């Protein structure tokens, strides 16, 4: 179950991350050319690039496996008979941490809802949307991994 989810996430978000990277490269090149050759620049380009950077980074985070401490996993979780229980406790800690971060992201979204960018005339709160989306998808990944762990009682990579 988690393999299908990861395959979907990797394929979809890797493509979207590459698309945003391409947009960033092209837009930055256009900005440099127009600023130094034509002596004019687009006022909205910096704000647009900020959105692209945010989405690209978060799509990149979703396409990679979480940073793990293999020594901890191998030496503790896999050697003991009840290592899966310790691993499931770690998943609970991760879920609590993710929910705290999601709650903070939602609060930041709400606090900046009435602040607007000067060029785009859209709310600054839209910068926090990818943060909330990324963390929510990570909650799904941890939940699927913990369900798999409980079913198989075998410690694996998240």
Number of strands: 0
Q: Termini separation (Å)?
A: 12 Å
Strand share of the residues?
Answer: under 5%
Gyration radius (Cα, Å) is 20 Å
Mean pLDDT: 79
Question: In sequence order, what are the helices and strands, one letter per element?
Answer: HHHHH
Instruction: Tell me the overall shape.
Output: elongated
- Runs with pLDDT <50, length 5+? none
Classification by helices and strands: mainly alpha
The major beta sheet can be summarized as: none
- Please report the number of helical segments: 5
Helix percentage range: over 70%
Report on the architecture of this protein.
The chain is mostly helical and 158 residues long. Helix content is 74%, strand content 0%. The chain has five helices and no strands. The chain has helices at 2-38, 45-63, 70-77, 83-111, 129-152. Helix 1 (2-38) runs antiparallel to helix 2 (45-63), helix 2 runs parallel beside helix 5 and helix 4 (83-111) runs antiparallel to helix 5. It is elongated.
Short précis:
The protein is an all-alpha fold and 158 residues long. 74% of the residues lie in helices and 0% in strands. The relative contact order is 0.13.
């Amino acid at each position: 179950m988690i393999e299908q989810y990861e395959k979907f996430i990797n394929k979809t978000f890797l493509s979207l991350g590459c698309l945003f990277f391409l947009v960033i490269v092209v837009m930055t090149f256009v900005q440099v050319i127009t600023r130094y050759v034509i002596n004019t620049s687009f006022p909205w380009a910096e704000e647009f690039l900020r959105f692209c950077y945010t989405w690209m980074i978060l799509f990149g985070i979703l396409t990679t496996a979480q940073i793990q401490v293999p020594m901890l996993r191998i030496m503790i979780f896999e050697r003991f008979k009840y290592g899966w229980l310790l691993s499931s406790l770690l998943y609970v800690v991760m879920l609590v941490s993710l929910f705290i971060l999601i709650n903070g992201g939602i609060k930041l979204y709400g606090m900046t809802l009435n602040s607007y960018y000067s060029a785009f005339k859209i709310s600054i709160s839209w910068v926090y949307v990818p943060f909330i989306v990324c963390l929510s998808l990570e909650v799904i990944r941890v939940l699927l991994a913990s369900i798999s762990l409980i079913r198989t009682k075998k410690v694996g990579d998240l």
